[in-house]
Amino acid sequence: MRNIVKVIVICLLASLFSSNLQAEQIALPIVITDALENDWTIQKNGRLTGPNPYYIGTKRTGYGSLLFVDGSLFPELESATRIIYENGMEIALGPKAVGSVQVIRKVYLGQGEGHIRYIEILENTTTTPVSIKVELLSECSYGSNFTHVWENENCAVVEYSSKPGVEFVYGPGGGLSPKRDRRNARYLRHTWEAVSIQPQSKVSILHFVAVRPKREQALEFAQSFEVAPACGNIDPSDLTCILNYDPRTLGAKSGIEILRGTDKDVVQLKSGD
Questions:
Q1: What is the DSSP letter of 227?
Q2: ω into residue 129 within 30 of 0, thus cis?
Q3: I want to staple 67 with a disulfide (CB 3.0 to 4.6 A). Which of 48, 53, 74, 113 is the partner?
Q4: Taking a C-beta distance cutoff of 8 angstroms, is the pair 105, 94 a contact?
Q5: Which tens digit of pLDDT belongs to each residue from 15-33?
């Protein structure tokens, strides 16, 4: 009987997250436009550029969102998978081997939303546990024009060269909390020193980038931003292993709820199934 119930739950989840989806391969880089008509360019390694890039000569810098695993940068790819949902779009880069794990970067823009969501998926495909260092690096510009306007343990608002305010949201952690180990006029860096991943298992890291026309608007957005409502269309297997937020607080907002049992996780749909 338990096996039958398990099959029913799997089928329900499959229909929930696969209906009305369109998946296709696309070339990188690609430009996406948010609800505020900001054009964001997703570069070949998942890094964001725009909507108001800063130039040093002919070199175009951007808002960062670089991912390092044990010191290795997520590599450049020529193409990615684009999934069109009824209410959003996701660009998935990878999987690609980085250090000792397989990594997928999923960049998501919801319909009517003025922010970009990242989920970094790190999978240990080996038969032995691994412990890795993970870094998220936001690089806004060169020089001393980069100004930290406001920050708390969850996010930072910055401004540079009289450009709009930019917010980076990294989260306090449901497991490990990110530690800002370096901050200067060019970088914001969050680091997890030792992320443990069991054999044939994975973890994921959730973070966001947003830009507003004025510093005051960026501050208002940062102070009122709620993560849970921004977690729609996250695959259940990615949601349950989020490292930097408690997934139980996110699941109910994205269509499922994770019920913690003594030995197994139970997935409950909002319909009550």
A1: S
A2: no
A3: 74
A4: yes
A5: 444 445 789 999 999 999 9
